[in-house]
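Write out the bound-state structure for 2-keto-D-gluconic acid.
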Amino acid sequence: MSRPKILLTRPWPEGAFDYLKTRYDVTVNETGVPLTQAQLIAAMGEYDALCPTVTDKLTADILRPATRVRMIANFGAGFEHIDIDAARAAGISVSNTPDVLTEATAEIALLLILMTSRRASEAERGLRDGRWNGWKPTQFLGQSLNGKTLGLVGFGRIGQATAHKAKTALGLKIAYHSRNRVAPEIEAQLGARYVDSLDALVAESDVLSLHTPGGDATRHRVDARLLGLMKPSAILINTARGSVVNEADLAAAMKAGTIWAAGLDVYEREPQVHPDLLPLDNVVLLPHLGSATRETRDNMGLRAAYNLDRFFAGKELIDRIA
Ligand code: 8YV
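---
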């Protein structure tokens, strides 16, 4: 029997790619640029499965009932870029890669908390630019974190891992708001306090970290109004999805001194960053590094591959999202 034809829209890390090659007839887009919509539509007729990433926008025009592709194994946990309703309507199965990137993404949240609170980007830029002419008692002063409150918006796997690391490593107190309150044992284990109003959490947080999914339900949840509730000394961290924050409102709030700093790993229109954020010294901007470790990216590829294996074996997917 011929092997299923699989298209990777981007090259994968070696380990996961090697695994895939032993089982499938694999084609890789090696161009370094995302496929166009026309190329994605054509691919839907040529392959048995597609492995997209966050940079592939899979709209209803692409996810049609009569396509050859019957399985989409997304390389990544978030799936805001895939029209899940259209996939369901077209009878196309879709999987993602949760769990394997939890710790790596939580590490990036901690990195941004540290970088913003200690003004690391700004200070390093100063040193490299020759503006550091020796130690002074008042230079590049940041904020201490120990004993302050970290407010988490969304408290799934990554939010909880961030809470654990922030509490144990940095001495932050943990408060959270989410659609569903977690079990009392988890709250006790993480020392996490549930706040039933988002506004109240935002108002009391010294560091506010976003961990909700993207999509219509959370679009621009952080806007001018919400930013206005934050403490002037507060820090906003976003490792979730760019769409959760209204970037224009954030830039305006930063310029007006409404909040003290922001650390972002994700953006509304990646790879573009709102131009008003770029000149701001107290905004740390990372290029969507959440899951960017060798181990994690390999594990993401393997997790996507295991979902493909299940699909082609006629078994239930490990991580079905459609
Ligand atoms: C991934 C992410 O690198 O998995 C996610 O949801 O945000 C990232 O860490 C990206 O999605 C790869 O497709």
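---
The two ends are 27 Å apart (CA to CA).
The chain has a mean pLDDT of 98.
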